[in-house]
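We now fix the convention by which a protein and its fold are recorded. Think of the row as the fold of the chain written in a discrete alphabet. Here is one such record, which you should read through line by line.
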Amino acid sequence: MSGHDTGVSRADIADMHGILELQAANQTARGGALAASLSAERLAKMMQDMPLIVARRDGRVTGFLLTSSREVNADIPVVKAMFNAYHGTPDAYVYGPVCVGEEERGKGLAQIMFAELRRLEPGREGILFIRNDNQPSLRAHLKMGMKKVASFEFNGFEHAVFSYIG
């Protein structure tokens, strides 16, 4: 293996520290686009529930795509607001957040992680929300073939709801 190995696969508990580190570095308070900070406990529950996808370079987590069943994160207010705006199919799951480290952006990593998720969850509907002022994310998800199906207001911000079938 060369010194620049990159891989995308399902996350396991060994990736937890890297996911938490990348999540912390990309919070809105630090200039990133992640509004929520998920605890290690919640991430572990999500990992048991659904595939979480990570990208690694040289053994370090450089990107993640989190997913959860409707039930696991039903207690998160913004997730509730999203499902009130658009219910989706009975087995629909929550896509996101997705995060790519600053040094890896613009290389199609989000699309590669999304392709891996679709391979693992074929035929299921994924539902996500994006703040309307997050233009790079809106553009990227439209480019991935997702469709805007609804919108909602939460904490003073307008959000778009997107859906796709795996």
Notes: The mean pLDDT is 90.
